[in-house]
Design goal:
The chain contains 8 helices and no strands. It has 143 residues and is mainly alpha-helical.
Length: 143
């Protein structure tokens, strides 16, 4: 955990990129994603998502942290935010295509009951993956 904390707050981009692309620990990927500052852009989340150890729980965490709820509600591209639109659509497609598998890390959908209810009525059967919890290890830890 201390290594992830140091990466988050005391490391340069190349050090972070090197670590995240080579780590064999899905737990480290999740902790980093959970604590990531989104003001730093989409490049680091893309590196996490491209790591072979990236589990479905990590992909869903990143999806929701990148305002995936809005995407699920509107399902449209936002021409005012082209980087976001491209990122969120690619991640949405990758999740639906089964690129990410369930692993040891748990996931709880970060929506209120009302938000979940609205989505449940709107989503197709294959999209229910976005509103289903995943049993496993809880790594929602602020560093």
């Amino acid at each position: 955990m201390n290594e992830i904390k140091a990466l988050l707050y005391d490391s340069d981009f190349n050090t972070i990129k090197n670590f995240l692309s080579k780590t064999k620990s899905s737990e480290d990927l999740y902790l980093f994603a959970y604590n990531y500052n989104w003001e730093n852009g989409f490049e680091i989340p893309k590196i996490i998502l491209n790591n072979k150890k990236c589990e479905l729980s990590i992909a869903l965490l990143i999806f929701y942290r990148a305002d995936g709820f809005r995407f699920l509600m509107e399902k449209s591209q936002n021409s005012d935010l082209p980087q976001w639109s491209c990122f969120i659509k690619q991640l949405y497609d990758s999740i639906l295509d089964g690129k990410y598998k369930k692993g040891v890390i748990g996931w709880n959908v970060p929506l209120s009951k009302i938000q979940s209810f609205k989505l449940q009525k709107m989503l197709s059967e294959c999209e229910k993956i976005f509103i289903e919890n995943i049993a496993g290890k809880n790594l929602d830890i602020d560093l």
